[in-house]
Amino acid sequence: MKSSFIAGILFLLCASCGRPESIVSTAQQEPISNLDNLLLEISLDDMPNSASLDFLNGFAHGLDPKAYNDILKCVHDIGPDSWNRVMTDVHNLSKIHVKQTVQAIEDMAKVFISVVKDCKSAVSDVTRDIGILSRDVNAGVFAEHAMKFLIEPWKLVQVVDHIVVGFSKKNYFEAGDGTGEFVGVILGLRLHDIESFLKKISD
Hints:
By secondary structure, the chain is mainly alpha-helical. The chain contains 10 helices and no strands.
């Protein structure tokens, strides 16, 4: 069964796959009210000042652990408006609506891109990662492949849980790591980790 999941993901990542609109519901965006009661408990007032930077550092690690130390040199903190945007995205994660969840994750990736895109000290591997991330997120490639990956309900539930578990523990690095890991897997920055990613989210 594991091999069939891997094969399915590789198929979904191929360029010849159909458009996601043909298989994904276009239901209105509607934040769900209960992710095991986690999201309702997330409040900016309860977060340490380091929460936003911890989240971005975690995103960098999840995106590509091998290049983490180099990507970290490009990461800096974001202002309250950008962090509020991320938190809105977190509250919009849904175990029901694929499109809504993908749009929320995509927007979090865009916040990360806004931080690292003009990094002057990036080494070649980091430049490659940032280039792929920026190109594929802004061109809709990430959204297309992510919606196809998440079309199976169990994957949608597991990915959302995988992302919000850090918030449940008030571990914002882990929350960012889960988000960046999913983005990295979908964009092929962590293609070799597809099998371990599937195993992790299904445990």
